[in-house]
Amino acid sequence: MCTTENYFVLDPRGATFSDLIRLLFSSDLRNRRFIHSSEDRLEDNDPCKFRRRWIIFVSIVIQKLMILLRKPLYFFGFSLGFWFNLLYINGGFFMILPNLFKGKIIWPEETSSTFASLNGNLDGRVELDGRIERGSKRYKAMLSIMASKLSYENINFVSSVLHNHWKLDSYEETPCHKSALKLGLL
């Protein structure tokens, strides 16, 4: 399953309700089909072993809940992101009604260069700080933070930020970008 020496993986799909109840009352963690570990002996004589089993129990229950609610959560996230983009594109909350009455409301498109993810809407910064010297440690840290934010956005939004805000026109020449194009990721 894992290629590392030390691992502890919980698979909520393999756990039934009776497995979870048995987990609370039995200290034998080896024979559980939803627990994968590199350790041969998972139980010990530690007085905290019930607390560990409780943490595993709660973790599995939360994961099962998230699996159960994945579609409603996806719909909620999509609706929230769409609403934020609708507000942004139309000039804010108070401009939606006038635009609607004038017939000039703009509907956001997920592939447009102005459609931002929920992260992008909550933190709208796209400019790099011009006061930080290029190549310095602070610049690299800032660039890493901004690139991490951009990783959640669609390719048209990313291209717009790279070309219009960061003035990086040669990013397509990098080996990473060429590899991503070959793999069909972009």
Plain-language structure description:
This protein has 186 residues and is mainly α. It folds into 3 domains: 61 residues, no CATH class; 28 residues, no CATH class; 78 residues, no CATH class. Helices cover 53% and strands 3% of the residues. A two-stranded antiparallel sheet has the order 1-2. Helix 1 packs antiparallel against helix 2. It starts with 7 loop residues before the first strand and ends with a helix. The mean pLDDT is 83.
Keywords:
186 residues; 3 domains; 8 helices; transmembrane
Sheet-strand content, in percent, reads under 5%
Radius of gyration: 24 Å
- In helices, the fraction of residues equals 40-55%
Structural class: mainly alpha
Using the alpha-carbon principal axes, give the shape: extended
Tell me the number of helical segments per DSSP (H or I, 4 or more residues long).
8
Provide the spatial order of strands within the biggest beta sheet.
1-2
The tally of domains stands at 3
Largest sheet: 2 strands, antiparallel
How far the N terminus sits from the C terminus, by CA atoms, comes to 30 Å
Count of strand segments: 2
Mean pLDDT: 83
Could you state the order of secondary-structure elements as H and E?
Answer: EHEHHHHHHH
- Poorly predicted runs: none
